[in-house]
Give the backbone structure.
Amino acid sequence: MITIRRNRIGTGHLPVWQELLWQLLLAAIGIVMLAPLAWLISTSLKEPGAIFKLPPVWIPNPVRLANYPEALTSLPFIRFFFNTLTITFWATLGTLVTASMAAYAFARLRFPGRGFLFALVLSTLMLPSVVTLIPTFILFRNLHWIDTYLPLIVPFWLGGGAFNIFLLRQFFLTIPLELDEAARIDGASNYRIYAQIILPLAQPALATVSIFSIIAHWNEFVLPLIYLHDMNKWTMAIGLQGFSDLYSTQWNLLMAASTVMLLPLIILFFSAQRYYLEGIQMSGIAGR
């Protein structure tokens, strides 16, 4: 008879005191990580004169809720919000479509030079984005795309980024090849296997790529600043600079607008947290 010993409390791998110690350590790290968010919300509810008081005041007194409507109406933030939403939606959609296609080719198809091409794609991760900033600007200027959303959307319909391709490829490698072979026996094409077999099984990885992409495009500042000149086309990240000038910064309004900008990302992360963690875990298993 084989006897399996387990602790009555805990995971079964660590003594109770070690598990409690780890829990306390993780709780302490969590508090430290949440401190900037708490300060952001606290400052967004303060009066201008109470922001830099020493010692710092964490609980505003009095609470100034008027900071939020004032921040959202002093600049056209509703327009900025929908501009950001439009760019984020189309760029994320392009990332999911093209990155998943490239990942499917690298993971499931056999063709000459596959390994070399995949290594070449990964090598682009070592290239800083600022290196290509001027050549891409000249390209988009010659295409007359300046002051349009095209430079912020179209590039993500041309591969979706090396990291996203790598992440999806690693997940696709965990799906048994027998499914592809059985589908081909039934007459399915590569496109049908990709669309009806691989993609439905890859929902956790697709959710992970979606979260990464949404966060990146939602918070993007440099590219919209370079390509968007008309104020009516600005994103929220650029609009936040409207609370700063040469001599002063309206910190309470800036923090209120930043809280509103951050709220959709927090809701997105917690609503898709299970898929995000599963996608990250499964994508790191395969290595062939």
In short: Residues 1-11 have pLDDT under 50 and may be disordered. The two ends are 38 Å apart (CA to CA).
